[in-house]
Amino acid sequence: MDNSRVLKTRLWLKRLITDYYGNQKRLEYSPCHLSKREFGFGSLTKKVTFRHRAFPNEYELLNYLKTEAPAHVNHSLSRYEFPGNEQMSEKVRLGTDLIFDIDVGDLNLKHKHDASWCCEDCFLALKEEITKLYEFLQEDFGFTKEEISLNFSGSRGYHARIGNEKVAELNESGRKEICAYLGTGTIPELIFEEKGSFIGPSYESGSLGKRICAAAIKEVSKSDIGNKENLSEQLKKGNWDAFPKGWGLAKIRKLAAKGGVQIPLDSKVTTDPSHMIRMANTIHGGSLLLAKVIKNLDDFYPLDECSPFGKSETGIEFALNTPGIRFGGEKFGAFKEGDSINLPESFAAYLCAKGRAYKTEQ
Amino acid sequence: MPRPYPFEKKEREKLRQTSISFETKDPFIFDCLKRAQDDVCGKSIAKAGSKTEVVSFTLAKILLGVIENNELNKSYAERKAKFWKDELNSESLTILVRMARDDFGMDVKIENDPVLVHFTDYLLYKKEGTSKPLIRTRLKKGFIAIRKEDLCTMIGQAIENDILKSIPTPKDLPKEIISAANEIKGEAIPKSKVKKRTTPKIKSLKEDALPPCIKDIIISLESGKSNHNANFVLVTFLIGLGLDNAGIIDIYRRSPKFNEKMTETQVRFALQRKYTCPACKTIKSYGLCTGKCEKGHPEANYIKNAFRKKKAPEVKNG
Predict the structure, then answer these.
(1) How many angstroms away from the CA of B54 is the closest CA of chain A?
(2) What pTM value is reported for the model?
(3) Domain residue extents for chain B
(4) Would the CB atoms of B135 and A189 count as touching at under 8 Å?
(5) pLDDT one-digit tens code per residue, B19-49
(6) What was the ipTM of the complex prediction?
(7) Which of B234, B190, B229, B194 is nearest to B211 (CA)?
(8) Does B128 touch chain A (CB under 8 A)?
(9) Which sign does the torsion angle of CA A322, A326, A327, A330 carry?
(10) CB contact, 8 Å: A189 with chain B?
């Protein structure tokens, strides 16, 4: 690594962040009960370098962002009586937001690029998961569209925030149950063996059971099992013993799981009341994209919409081989290590923040 | 006509509108206090009229507030919740739903036969370990279908939570309540649960290390004006520090009303019952706190003052 080039690149990125916050007349988004939140800020190299900051209002927070231009702006999921106290026990928790986090790293995708990169297919897979979560939250948990706020995480994920006062009272074990319902452990909890029989959900089993049942029936129809129609009818009634001989519990669970009813959540975000999350509509220092609030999920593609920077040409040199990608509505690349090229400022900032390129003189 | 329950909001509201005081020497309030005392100690209590039940329930929570023992609070709350949960089983579903809504703010409704409860309330009030996990419920549009027994269990849990939340931090209490609380301390708190003392035994009292409240109690003792609570605090404080009986009696000898035989009996009695010195918070509620101390217990303040190492004077170089 060439230290002087790294430093020069970081200075350029820092200047971009300073200019961005410097031009803000007001915050486009602020968390509810702002004065009761703890804030934490990070640099270009670390997401949280210090925390336990509190602001009485939006104006003070914006002033801080203008002066300090932090690369990461995080706030607590919890509201506190004394958010600025350093000891967690002295903050006095008043309630905790219910937030879900889906990150591309949890999807176990096998795309042909290094783990730090996020290709168009990765973003597509992420969108499928957040769409599924959005449906679960409405269909199963009964939250209205107005209560659910979705935003891009700023790098490789999505956040869903629930604006409902009642859920703020839920304790850690209640939140763990919600996570278990949405993701980890769903199938083994609902399809199990008891006294030599396979027990599983039916079409009468509530939203989740019905969904698992439907997923299994869909997979049965695609498989080479004999007498599919009869088996599907039996599964609708909850008769999981109807599978032909040779189908053990593990195989049945695997088939049901194929239907994709589990959502890969980062459950720590949902369950840990002391967790901090990126403030929506602020810059992510690891991508220089905004953690933008999503108005229309169907048409949303983060790399087209989330860069706050312009199209003026900026010179960069690639430090790593980088696959081609659509950014800001245009298709770029692929690029090889050592390629020196002029690119729109927004894309150049994205690549530099991701550590794939250095800023050059041009 | 459903029977009234002391935890219901409307019953508490009725109580607020009545005026009851120890000063009037009304036997009703003394009966209620005795009932509350027995209830906190876990003794069986006979059914009574709704007013008696509401007043003794309120007094029981005040007594718990004075005693400040988490285990006692928990066991009382659990016992009452279980008792009322069993009683509620015989109530109609309509009454239970009304109670869940009005008294505990649950989002619950009857739709055809099953009761539908909002999942947040289910998660807040379901009984850990016995109720179904969320994943095995029939959750649809935010509501879970539950049985009447499940609703009773949830109300039981809500009662328990509510009792624990509503134990007050009492101040300026009548002496009748303070002495009832002291009696419970000796009787209801299991001996095994009493924290083992780590206070070192002292041979003589360093009077300059005494916390302000104890200093003032000794002054009032010397002028013959110390009351029952003050004497209780002083004797338990001295016992707690490990001063021997003769040393304690010597302190009481300063009183113009000193009676050696009576003092001896009372000190022995306090020792036998293993009474402990109240914390500063309780001493404040007796009206005996006369200064600001760093620690929350007079014994801790004495130890801190008596064994504090004197700082070496700062030496400036150059």
Answers:
(1) 28
(2) 0.73
(3) 1-68+168-198, 88-162, 207-311
(4) yes
(5) 777 777 778 888 888 888 888 888 877 777 7
(6) 0.85
(7) B234
(8) yes
(9) positive
(10) yes
